[in-house]
Design a protein that fits this description.
Elements: E1 14-17, H1 19-24, E2 25-35, H2 39-47, E3 50-51, E4 56-60, E5 63-67, E6 70-71, E7 89-92, H3 95-108, E8 111-120, E9 123-133, H4 136-159
Antiparallel strand pairs: 1-8, 2-7, 2-9, 3-6, 4-5, 5-7, 8-9
């Protein structure tokens, strides 16, 4: 009997993370969106030449777009294709998800941020979060909570030895 191949680790599917978004915003809801990509962009993503730190999502005419997502073209890219690394890319979301995003942004003052880019099967997916901006006080409280959790874990680890 042949053994089945084990699935790869979840972390290996991640292309890029936006750690700055978790620091600057309180993310309340997450959505998974596909993207309209060109062939050279997918090849570049496979090599990991992507930066989503400066990207932002906006809604226009009932459609969602991501801007500032930087995909560096490969050196061996085709010469007949004009590679624009920061072009605006359309996000593929269900109508219900789009309506929820539009309502939250327009009525409740939320922001849509890109939090992660990862592979799901052979498809590249962008995780977008519905977020509210943090104030400086909130950031300090989060830092205190992280420090306390680290200290508590350290004490618990040494007390069981």
């Amino acid at each position: 009997m042949s053994k089945k191949k084990s699935k790869s680790k979840a972390g290996s599917n991640t292309i890029a993370l936006n750690k700055k978004a978790r620091h600057e915003y309180r993310i309340e809801d997450k959505f998974e969106a596909g993207m309209e990509l060109q062939g050279w962009e997918v090849k570049s993503m496979r090599t990991g030449k992507v930066n989503i730190a400066e990207s932002y999502v906006y809604v226009r005419d009932g459609e969602a777009f991501v801007s500032g997502l930087n995909i560096q073209p490969l050196i061996s890219a085709s010469t007949h294709v004009v590679a624009d690394p920061t072009r605006i890319r359309k996000l593929l979301l269900n109508r219900r998800e789009l309506d929820k995003l539009i309502g939250a942004v327009e009525r409740q003052g939320y922001t849509i941020v890109a939090t992660a880019l990862y592979w799901k099967g052979s498809w590249a997916k962008l995780e977008v979060g519905l977020a509210k901006g943090k104030k400086d006080q909130d950031k300090r409280e989060d830092e205190k909570d992280r420090e306390w959790q680290r200290t508590k874990d350290r004490v618990m680890k040494h007390s069981f030895r």
